Amino acid sequence: MVKIFAVSSAGGHWIQLRRMRPAWDENCDVSYITTKREYEEETKMEGNNAQFYCLISANRWQKFRLILQLVSITYLIILKRPDVIISTGAALGYFAIRIGKLLGARTIWVDSIANADELSLSGQKVAKYADLWLTQWEHLAGDKGQGPVFKGAVI
């Protein structure tokens, strides 16, 4: 059974990630990792055995919280050893992709739908560590393997 970590920060990143859930089937062992405890009930209502983990919220201006977030996602990845990590961002997803790649997981980054004019900062930074980097805006797709790939939009 394929172990998938579906990782995102709260808010729009989470909504986007949840819209992709039909992409993983019932033969997958899915764990949702986010930064808002209230989302746990939403995942339980699906009726599957998806696991839920709530980690500390942090952004680039909260250095100490970022360190705690990095430590917690690293611990979880080492403990659970996912086969695939998919993320819509932001900092939590960035760390998950980086650590997951180091430990042999396949990694997928889906750049935020909110970034219609330019790619997200996290997306730009994590791009070289993602096995697949996607954008939901065709005009932001890269040419000849440079930059993200456009395969359609979630919305």
Outline the structure in words:
32% of the residues lie in helices and 23% in strands. It is α/β, with parallel strands linked by helices and 155 residues long. A seven-stranded parallel beta sheet has the order 3-2-1-4-5-6-7.
Low-confidence stretches: none
**Strand pairing plus helix content: what structural class?**
alpha/beta
Strand content: 15-25%
What is the count of DSSP helices, taking H or I runs of 4+ residues?
5
Radius of gyration: 15 Å
Mean of all residue-level pLDDT scores: 84
Secondary-structure element pattern, one letter each: EHEHEHEHEHEE
Separation of termini? 29 Å
Main sheet, how many strands, which sense, barrel?
Answer: 7 strands, parallel
Please outline the helices and strands.
Layout: E1 2-8, H1 12-19, E2 28-34, H2 40-44, E3 51-54, H3 63-80, E4 84-89, H4 91-102, E5 106-110, H5 121-126, E6 132-135, E7 149-150
Defining traits:
155 residues; alpha/beta; 7-stranded parallel β-sheet; 23% strand
Please provide a brief summary of the model.
Helices cover 32% and strands 23% of the residues. With 155 residues, it is of the alpha/beta class.
